[in-house]
Design goal:
alpha+beta, five-stranded mixed β-barrel, two-stranded antiparallel ribbon, 4 helices, elongated
Length: 174
């Protein structure tokens, strides 16, 4: 054990080191240049942020479906599982399952009700849909959940969306 005087000297050295001026590089004009540490980004961080912000656990919600996607009798031959397949199917009729995130109701020029939908596919990627008056009357939104969406893939300004022809909310367990 050190003496009381050596402990006091250690405390003085520690406090002196805590309050030392940081080393800055000074340019010729007198401005101080700060050096930032290297910034890192993990590819899964965005997915974790989505989960925490939206409170969604995508895989669990899809696993709770009563009708597995592989055996769904209403599923079309041109079934899509990921939004990344949409650019290859522009102008074609498709079927996709999506979790409803939000809707935006609006009116047509004639005053009829229509809506836009924002969805998440099974991998957690967003896609958008357009629901014209005739379709929204026959196939209305029935709250949050997973739906089978059928419609035509359209592309505008480099972004794909789906013009809905049919939509059905799928039953889930529990």
């Amino acid at each position: 054990m050190g003496s009381a005087s050596s402990l006091g000297a250690m405390d003085e050295n520690r406090s002196a080191s805590l309050f030392n001026e940081p080393s800055f590089d000074k340019s010729s004009e007198g401005a101080v240049e700060l050096k930032l540490p290297p910034l890192t980004h993990h590819h899964l961080k965005m997915h974790w942020m989505k989960l925490s912000c939206w409170d969604l656990n995508y895989r669990v919600r899809y696993k709770r479906l009563r009708i597995p996607a592989e055996t769904n009798p209403r599923k079309s031959d041109r079934s899509v599982s990921s939004v990344f397949q949409l650019p290859d199917l522009i102008g074609k009729e498709i079927s996709i399952q999506g979790y409803l995130v939000t809707t935006k109701p609006t009116r047509t020029a004639k005053g009829e009700y229509m809506a836009f939908g924002t969805w998440l596919d099974v991998d957690g990627y967003f896609f958008d849909t357009t629901h014209f008056p005739r379709v929204i009357k026959q196939h209305p939104f029935r709250g949050k959940g997973i739906y089978t969406i059928k419609g035509r893939v359209d592309e505008e300004f480099g972004f794909c969306s789906i013009t809905v022809s049919e939509m059905e909310k799928l039953p889930t367990q529990g």
